[in-house]
Design goal:
6-stranded mixed beta sheet, 33% helix, binds guanosine-5'-triphosphate, binds magnesium ion
Length: 242
């Protein structure tokens, strides 16, 4: 078993407003995530889940409080190191016109075919790619083959995995996957031993995680695993039963 000692995340009293707006999107959020943990972020639309993710690779800076990775304030880290450590799979999978291979190695042009294939296997998209007319050389995007929402999501996960991030942020990236494929994906991610944060609207995904953070209206309402949240959080119980 590998020792996992990188990929710790700490939020301390974090608040956030989008620049130039008055709305408090996140309020006084504090939590710790240990290296290697898989944590689900659950919450209604507009709760602030994507906003919270954006603070980790510094797509935005906090308004108050501190975000730390492995003990370092992200604002004091070199952007290059930060972006290498954190893989962010956005809510909308963005593919450009080009081959499957180019889409996966985007931003890491020196990726080898072995690395690209391994990332695709783990992202549960390799078999689909092998069934395309020109496999990894097949064109996607405009004038390319049409991929389903779930296939695009997995390609965009492969793009993050090929960079071997210590922290993987999946923003609702498994919404279009069936339960079996999702379970296989999450199992494969564990092999990467990276810390995984997964935003989800699905209770089935949350149950699989080591821990769940429940957001409501920009506040961290509850945290714990499925069994403990069922006992301690009325909102979690209502989501579970709905
Ligand atoms: P879903 O993706 O719909 O599940 O919601 P979410 O939990 O990811 O919420 P998100 O973090 O996107 O939004 C939280 C609040 O911030 C909402 O009130 C949004 O309207 C607001 N918001 C989100 N993105 C932006 C942005 O780019 N600019 C501004 N000004 N507000 C934003
Ligand atoms: Mg969102």
């Amino acid at each position: 078993d590998l020792t996992v000692n990188e990929g710790k995340i700490e939020f301390t009293n974090v608040s956030f407003q989008y620049p130039g707006t008055a709305e408090m999107v996140l309020e006084d959020i504090s939590f710790k995530i240990n290296p290697g943990e898989t944590v689900a972020i659950l919450g209604a639309t507009g709760a602030g889940k994507t906003s919270l993710f954006q603070l980790i690779p510094r797509l935005y800076d906090v308004t108050g409080g501190i975000v730390k990775i492995d003990g370092h304030d992200v604002r004091k880290m070199k952007m290059e190191n930060l972006r290498r450590k954190v893989g962010f799979v956005p809510q909308e999978a963005l593919l450009f016109t080009g081959s499957v291979k180019e889409n996966i190695s985007w931003g890491k042009e020196d990726a080898t075919m072995v690395e690209i294939t391994a990332a695709s296997v783990n992202a549960q998209i390799h078999e689909t790619i092998m069934n395309l007319p020109q496999q990894y050389d097949t064109r996607v995007g405009q004038k390319g083959v049409n991929l389903s929402g779930g296939q695009k999501q997995r390609l965009s996960i492969a793009r993050a995995l090929v960079r071997m991030p210590k922290i993987l942020l999946l923003d609702d990236s498994t919404s279009a996957l069936d339960m079996k494929t999702e379970a296989k994906l999450l199992g494969a991610l564990k092999e990467y031993t990276c810390t995984t944060l997964i935003i989800t609207q699905k209770i089935s995904t949350a149950i699989e995680a080591d821990r769940i953070l429940l957001l409501e209206d920009g506040k961290l309402l509850a945290e714990g695993d499925h069994d403990s949240l069922l006992k301690t959080s009325g909102l979690y119980k209502r989501i579970f039963q709905s």
